[in-house]
Design goal:
Strand order of the largest sheet: 1-4-3-2
Number of domains: 2
Largest sheet: 4 strands, mixed
Number of helices: 4
Order of helices and strands: EHEEEHEHEEEH
Distance between the termini: 46 Å
Strand content: 25-35%
Oligomer: single chain
Helix content: 25-40%
Shape: elongated
């Protein structure tokens, strides 16, 4: 059996800030989304022609008309939507550490860093506007190269 991650979904009352964060911090772009009975966005990593590139599904909560969302995905208390809940973080492999650190600094996004030498990873942890923790995993050699150049 083959198993790959298709996407992750975030429920939010602030669709715009969530979109801005993922577009700016991760470089994903808004693309086609089915006409669901609730607001939302699909953010793509790559071509919009391939639905499997829609890696972030943002589920908007319309406080004035929550019925479409309730009927489609079920109801959740808005107060419970802060942070990652039982999911600790969402992790992705990446390259281009130097450029990403410069971008996140320019955007004013706080980053927590650590290197795990035994598996050759340098990790960045950042929080989206909803408190969801995003982990970006870079080859540790990229961090070593940055340190050597300073």
């Amino acid at each position: 059996m083959t198993l790959t991650l298709n996407h992750f979904s975030i429920r939010t009352t602030d669709l715009e800030s969530t979109r801005e964060f993922y577009e700016a911090a991760l470089g994903v772009t808004v693309g086609p989304r089915p006409n669901f009975p609730f607001p939302g966005l699909w953010l793509y990593n790559g071509s919009h022609d391939d639905m499997s590139n829609a890696m972030v599904h943002v589920i908007g909560i319309d406080p004035n008309d929550p019925e479409g969302l309730k009927q489609y995905l079920g109801d959740r208390d808005v107060a419970s939507l802060k942070g990652s809940g039982a999911v600790d973080h969402i992790a992705m492999f990446a390259t281009g550490l130097k450029q990403k650190l410069a971008l996140l600094s320019k955007l004013g996004i706080a980053v927590r860093e650590r290197t795990v030498p035994s598996i050759g990873l340098h990790q960045l942890f950042l929080d989206d506007p909803n408190g969801v923790v995003i982990e970006l995993n870079y080859p540790a050699a990229e961090k070593a190269s940055l340190e050597a150049s300073h």
